[in-house]
Structures are given as C-alpha cells and as structure tokens.
C-alpha cells in the first residue's frame, strides 16, 4: 500500500527502489505525450489552434520519430528523482504523522494532503533545474542537447537564476497537486478494495489482499487522483512552463521546428496569469489541457500500478 501502515514490512529505502522502478517505466511510456504537451502549452495563440494529430504529424515529418523522445534521458533522471523523492518524503511524513499519535479517521485525509504537500514541495525544489533544461531540449533539441551542454546553454542565457525559472509556480502547483493526488488516492483505493472484498468468502478475507484486486483498485484510484489533481492545479503548470523558457533565445545556427517558433514567454507568475487571461481569455489558462489529462491519467495509473507491483516483487525477493 502507498503510505505508512501499522503492519508495514518494507523500509523507506526499499520503497525508494520501488519508486525508482516506477519512475523509469512511467517516463518511457509517457514521454511522447509530454513532448506534445509542452509544444501545445508554449505555442502562441493562433486563429485556429492545431489539433493533437496535426501537431504530431508536424513533429514527425519535420524531426522524425525520435523527436517524441527528445529530453528522454534527462527525463528519466528527472522522473527517478521526482517520483522516488515524492514517495520517500510521503512515506517519512505519513510514518511520523500516523505513528507518533492516534489519528481520528476524519483527519486522516487532511494529514495525507499535508504530507503530500511536503512531498511535492521537496520534489519541485529538487528537480526544477533538470526541468528547465529538459523543457528546452523538447522545444529545441540541438541547442540544448545533452545534460552538460544543456546546462551551459541555460547558464549562458540567464545565469544561475535561469535554472530556477518557474520554481515558484512549480512549488505552488506540485505541492498541492501531490497533496491532492495522495489524499484522493488514499481515499479511493480502500473503497475499491472494500468493494472487491465483498465478493470474497470469509476464508479468503482472512488472507492478504489478492494482487489482481490491489492492481485494479490502484489503477482506478490513480486515474481518479490524477484527473482531479491535474485539473485543479493546471493553470500553475501552464505558467511554470512559460516561465521556464523566459530566458531562452533561439540561435540561428540551430534548427528550430515550426512548432517551437513564436513561443509564449513570461517573466513573473502574476504577469503570466494576467497576460494569458487578457490575451486568450480564462480558457487560455487551460491551453493544452486535453493532452495533459491524457498524460496525467496514464502517468498516475502507471506510477501507482508499477509502484505497487515493484513493492510486491521486492517483498517476494526479500523473503527468499
């Protein structure tokens, strides 16, 4: 189960390994959606917005199939650090919160939400520099190719502060988003498991939860948690991406794809929100939401499912 439970038989360090496995698998499978999401969020408004199919075709014919995995290697590092740190901090904070004192049932979800905020804030602070490089790799791969070359290019464009462009929006987004995700997941998963257990015999209920039931409950809970958290905090996600390229300057010697020209840039969070509403209307704050929801749902299902499966496999390995 995700989070601390009284009968927990895994250490936080073992859960870090499970979090890393979960992050690697999830990132590889969802990277193409991430590229589409970034290009859509940063594209300046036109009379007729490109559909996802049209954007995909543009990327494919201009840059080839590998373009959908631009920034993937850095994305794997980002995913490992982000996912493992979120689960690790969440496990530690829930362990402290629920082990130190008896918690009333009505306060459990509030505590899970606060623990999730701690996990999200720590994760956002840790991975923001990697995110800045990675986002720029996804829009102009040649200019920011590789970790060290990308870091140098970011530094040249805006100095050390450039690595934390969008940090405020990232913390304001990821802290509550992770809090919502974990609290909704922690609320929905037991309900699904309880419903599935109602079909088991009295003898079966005494045995541990069946893996297929746990996987199904985890998938449904992850889907619901991902949808609610992403929609609730999406305007901050949009602002964060536009802030992360504020110091980016396209160089003529590097090829810039048509989907990465005329980008929307912001310098402050307030200015980003105000200008977006003024130019694009309130719906502009949800530019790219469609592909973001696809990515969020698939990411959460894959993240929680592979995490639970990894924990199950690691328990079996440690028993031997």
Structural notes for this entry:
- This is Mitochondrial carrier protein.
- One of its GO terms (cellular component) is membrane.
- Solcar repeats lie at residues 10-96, 107-191, 213-313.
- With 320 residues, the chain is mostly helical.
- It has one domain: Mitochondrial carrier fold (Alpha/alpha barrel), CATH 1.50.40.
- Helices cover 72% and strands 0% of the residues.
- It has 10 helices and no strands.
- It has helices at residues 12-42, 52-63, 72-99, 105-139, 147-158, 167-197, 202-206, 211-244, 269-280, 289-319.
- The longest helix has 35 residues, at 105-139.
- The protein is elongated.
- The protein starts with 11 loop residues before the first helix and ends with a helix.
Secondary-structure arrangement, i.e. CATH architecture:
Alpha/alpha barrel
Uncertain stretches: none
Biggest sheet architecture: none
> Into which percent range does the helicity of residues fall?
over 70%
Element string (H = helix, E = strand): HHHHHHHHHH
Q: Count every beta strand, where a strand is a DSSP E run of 2 or more residues.
A: 0
Mean pLDDT level = 83
Strand content is under 5%
The value of Rg in angstroms is 21 Å
Number of domains: 1
- Which class do the helix and strand fractions yield? mainly alpha
Shape: elongated
Considering the protein shown, what is the CATH homologous superfamily? Mitochondrial carrier domain
Number of helices: 10
* CATH T-level topology: Mitochondrial carrier fold
CATH level-1 class:
Mainly Alpha
Q: In angstroms, what separates the terminal alpha carbons?
A: 21 Å
């Amino acid at each position: 189960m995700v989070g601390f439970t009284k009968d927990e038989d895994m250490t936080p360090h073992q859960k870090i390994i499970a979090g890393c496995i979960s992050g690697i698998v999830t990132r590889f499978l969802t990277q193409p959606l991430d590229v589409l999401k970034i290009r859509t969020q940063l594209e300046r408004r036109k009379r007729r917005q490109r559909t996802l199919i049209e954007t995909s075709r543009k990327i494919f014919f201009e840059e080839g199939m590998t373009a959908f995995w631009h920034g993937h290697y850095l994305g794997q590092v980002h995913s490992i650090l982000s996912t493992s740190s979120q689960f690790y901090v969440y496990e530690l904070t829930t362990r402290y919160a629920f082990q130190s004192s008896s918690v009333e049932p009505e306060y459990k979800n509030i505590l899970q939400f606060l623990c999730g905020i701690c996990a999200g804030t720590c994760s956002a602070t840790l991975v923001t520099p990697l995110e800045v490089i990675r986002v720029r790799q996804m829009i102009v791969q040649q200019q920011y190719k590789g970790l060290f070359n990308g870091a140098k290019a970011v530094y040249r464009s805006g100095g050390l502060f450039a690595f934390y462009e969008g940090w405020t929006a990232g913390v304001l987004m990821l802290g509550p988003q992770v809090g919502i995700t974990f609290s909704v997941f922690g609320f929905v998963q037991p309900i699904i498991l309880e419903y599935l257990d109602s079909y088991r015999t009295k003898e079966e209920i005494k045995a541990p939860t069946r893996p297929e039931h746990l996987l199904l409950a985890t998938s449904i809970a992850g889907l619901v948690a991902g949808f609610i958290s992403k929609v609730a905090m999406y305007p901050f996600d949009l602002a964060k991406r536009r802030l992360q390229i504020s110091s980016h300057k396209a160089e003529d010697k590097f090829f810039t794809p048509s989907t990465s020209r005329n980008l929307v840039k912001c310098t402050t969070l307030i200015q980003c929100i105000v200008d977006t509403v003024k130019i694009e209307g309130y719906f502009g704050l949800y530019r790219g939401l469609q592909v973001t929801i696809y990515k969020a749902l698939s990411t959460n299902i894959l993240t929680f499912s592979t995490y639970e499966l990894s924990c199950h496999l690691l328990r079996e390995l440690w028993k031997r």
